[in-house]
């Protein structure tokens, strides 16, 4: 219920204005977002890589409405990849990309062309791109663009969402040699017809999907903060005798940093998803919807300013 309210607020321009202008918002945003500028992203990446973490950077922005916006997003990624390479931060740092930010909703071909240009820059910088997965209406289009990008850039990563009923099948298709697949629970509000609704059903689906990926030939990327699923991931890695460099854990910037360090110390690859940019509103609201405890953090910040 609370999740639905917050996700509805995420789509309301009025609430967006209210949240963006609240004085405390800055502190809350800082916890989850690296900053607004490319340099902020570089500074945060430098710090995390120095701690032995790997990074994937996301330039915030989704639901691009014009070709000019899409071009701007492409240019920012190209700029970022050049800067990462110049700073010696690749291959530890790669980038995550939302096709909607490249115009997928109004011109799929345009989004594909821009994504291809970004993959070319990533290859030049000695790193990779992962295509974030958005709402279920875009799944087929995103997987289709992924398979086309992989012809020239086989290291391009996919994301699959365990809450979708179709995902076990997609895992089977993508658990092939060289295929990087991030498995997450899924962050959007989806109808019952396409997605499991209860936490238990989503978690059970996650374990089934993980089993397919970890027993397959690809490179699974376990994106979750859930202690039980991390433990199951560690167990499966031993069971399937996976070499430490044949899979990785992933978590979001600002969430469970102590657990992130523990996984590094245990010898695993632990990649932090680091968002940056001015359009942080939708991202922040999805984090709040996932974990209403984060609302408490927001409320405490408000109180301490009051
Ligand atoms: C690297 C990465 C990339 C992602 N990419 C995508 C994507 O492309 N598309 C998409 O739809 N979604 C994406 N997501 C979001 C994902 O789908 C989930 O919405 C999000 O990760 C929350 O699910 P969870 O697995 O962490 O578990 P949850 O069900 O949110 O939480 C399970 C348990 O984890 C622990 N936990 C969770 N948060 C915290 C916290 N803040 N502090 C302490 N403990 C906590 C608690 O014990 C909690 O009970 C991504 C997530 C990650 C980590």
> Sheet bearing the most strands, described?
8 strands, parallel
Structural class: alpha/beta
- Uncertain residue ranges: none
Averaging pLDDT over every residue, what do you get?
91
Number of helices in the DSSP assignment: 13
Terminal CA distance reads: 28 Å
**What order do the SSEs take from the amino end to the carboxyl end, as H and E?**
HHHHEHEHEHEHEHEHEHEHH
- Distinct ligands, ions and cofactors found in the model: flavin-adenine dinucleotide
Q: What's the β-strand tally?
A: 8
Shape assignment: globular
Cα radius of gyration in angstroms:
18 Å
The largest beta-sheet arranges its strands as 3-2-1-8-7-6-5-4
Which bin fits the share of residues in helices? 40-55%
Beta-strand percentage?
5-15%
Outline the structure in words.
- 52% of the residues lie in helices and 13% in strands.
- By secondary structure, it is an alpha/beta fold.
- The protein is built from 13 helices and 8 strands.
- The two termini are 28 Å apart.
- An 8-stranded parallel β-sheet has the order 3-2-1-8-7-6-5-4.
- It binds flavin-adenine dinucleotide (FAD).
- Flavin-adenine dinucleotide is lined by residues 132-133, 159, 161, 182, 184-188, 223-227, 250-252, 255-256, 273, 290-291.
Tag the structure with descriptive keywords.
eight-stranded parallel sheet, 306 residues, alpha/beta, single chain, binds flavin-adenine dinucleotide
Summarize the entry for a quick read.
The protein is an alpha/beta fold and 306 residues long. It has 13 helices and eight strands. Helix 5 runs parallel beside helix 6, helix 8 (167-174) runs parallel beside helix 9 (199-215) and helix 9 packs parallel to helix 10.
């Amino acid at each position: 219920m609370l999740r639905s309210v917050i996700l509805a607020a995420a789509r309301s321009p009025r609430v967006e204005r209210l949240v963006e202008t609240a004085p405390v918002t800055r502190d809350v945003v800082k916890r989850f977002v690296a900053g607004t500028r490319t340099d902020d992203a570089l500074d945060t990446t430098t710090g995390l890589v120095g701690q032995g973490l790997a990074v994937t950077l996301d330039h915030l922005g989704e639901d691009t409405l014009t070709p000019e916006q899409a071009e701007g997003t492409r240019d920012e990624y190209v700029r970022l990849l050049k800067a990462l390479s110049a700073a010696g931060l690749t291959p530890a740092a790669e980038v995550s990309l939302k096709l909607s930010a490249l115009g997928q909703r109004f011109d799929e071909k345009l989004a594909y062309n821009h994504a291809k240009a970004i993959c070319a820059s990533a290859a030049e910088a000695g790193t990779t791109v992962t295509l974030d997965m958005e709402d279920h209406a875009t799944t087929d289009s995103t997987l289709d663009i992924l398979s086309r990008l992989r012809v020239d850039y086989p290291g391009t990563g996919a994301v699959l969402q365990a809450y979708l009923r179709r995902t076990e099948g997609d895992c089977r298709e993508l658990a092939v040699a060289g295929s990087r697949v991030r498995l997450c629970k899924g962050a959007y509000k989806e109808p019952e017809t396409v997605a499991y609704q209860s936490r238990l059903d989503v978690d059970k689906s996650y374990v089934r999907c993980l089993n397919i990926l970890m027993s397959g030939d690809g490179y699974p990327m376990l994106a979750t903060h859930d202690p039980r699923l991390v433990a199951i991931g560690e167990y499966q890695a031993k069971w399937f005798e996976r070499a430490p460099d044949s899979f990785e854990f992933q978590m979001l910037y600002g969430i469970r940093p102590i657990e992130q360090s523990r996984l590094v110390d245990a010898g695993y690859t632990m990649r932090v998803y680091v968002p940056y940019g001015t359009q942080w509103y939708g991202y922040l609201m999805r984090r709040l919807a996932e974990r209403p405890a984060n609302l408490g953090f927001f409320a405490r910040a408000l109180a301490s300013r009051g």
